Model the fold of this input.
Amino acid sequence: MYTPKHFEEKDLSKLVEFMKEYNFAAMVNSAKKRYWATHLPFLIEESGGEIILKAHMAKANPQWANFKTDEDVLVIFQEPHAYISPKLYEDPVSVPTWNYIAVHAYGIPEILPSIEERISILEDSFKVFESSFKDQWDVLPADYKNELLEGIVAFRIKITNIEGKFKLSQNRTAGDRTRIIENLADKEDKVKSDIADFMNKRGK
Done:
């Protein structure tokens, strides 16, 4: 990912925190002279100094069959973002831009073949996304659950490289940044106000 130095984020803890908060991501790989992409919710785990992504997809999705044991997939975490008007800049010789955050995570995917591993990923997903659903899951008919489990593929990705881009007007003056934050925070739009929050965290 092209990232000018002033937008680069290398703090691993911040990148992991961002991925956990915005965990619906696009996974991309290439095979058979084309690109494959699937949008999935990911579980992000840290273990022994490693970052592991876990997810599952429909078995009918051809992307998993094109995983390679010697080639990375790219998982793109991107959100929030906001249009930045040049009217907010002190210098009138300016043009519009876009503020956003993106994290690119690379790693080789590994299929988790057993039923137990698929169940584990589903139940871990319940804990993250809707913990109260576990009670309902436990009483679902066995044949229904078995059919569901036979229809999905679970996998894990051990991250080998990670890139972070926090494009938050770091190249603008303090006054410009203050006006941008005030403008975005005033919007009745959570995505825009989230960008204002990220800008505030980095300081005006």
